[in-house]
Amino acid sequence: MENTILLFNAYLFLADGFEEMEALNTVDVLRRAGVQVTTVSIKDAKEVTGAHQIMVIADKMLTEVLNEKAEILIFPGGMPGAKNLGECDPLIEMLKKHFAKGGKIAAICAAPAMVFGKLILKEGTRLTCYPGFESYLSKYDVTDEGVVVDGNVITAKGPAYAVDFGLTIVEQIIGKEKAQEVASGLLYVW
Question: Which one is catalytic: 108, 109, 129, 137?
Answer without folding.
Answer: 109
